[in-house]
Amino acid sequence: MVGSAGVGKTSILLRHNGQGFVTKISPTVGCSFITSHTKCEDREVELQIWDPAGQECYRSLIPQFTRNAVAAVLVFDLTDKTSFQDLPFWIEEVRRNSVDHDIPFFILANKCDLTEKVAVSDVEIAALCEKYCAPFHFTSALSGKGIHTGIVAIAKNLLAHHEKERAEEAKKAEALKLEKAGETSSVKKYRGCCVVS
Predict the structure, then answer these.
(1) Cα–Cα distance between 155 and 94 in angstroms, integer?
(2) What's the domain range around 20?
(3) Which InterPro entries does the annotation name (predicted)?
């Protein structure tokens, strides 16, 4: 989970983890994480959600936490346009440092409860999400709105992606098995031919 400092990443994690909303929360130093068990289509999905600090002085640590990530959750503050404008930076940072350069992105538009202070339009959000093929959810760490729904949607997407990868790997393994079986039978024929001659 990445995004600029103060957008509510830690508050979202605490809320998702059942700890409610904490009004005075210290900025994340380095990185923290939670393990979350989410029910998805009659299956339990375990998510390890990492929360690296968003402050600029900690950005050099980001590669350590994104290298082996299977997805990236980007968080911005709906009342802070700069945090939204920083999302392309975070996307490129994750892509550049991730083993999987096609890593899926998910966007959480946090602080949706502050409707009178919203600084980012739905049109801007939709354009960014379309550009990066990233689904998004409105969330509020204060009220809890959208957090569970967003995390479950992310888990469902990752589960579907994992199932698709497993099916593709099984197909490749079967094709390789058939290919090797074909080589074996042609080798046997060749050997049989040589013995006969």
Answers:
(1) 19
(2) 9-163
(3) P-loop_NTPase (IPR027417), Small_GTP-bd (IPR005225), Small_GTPase (IPR001806)
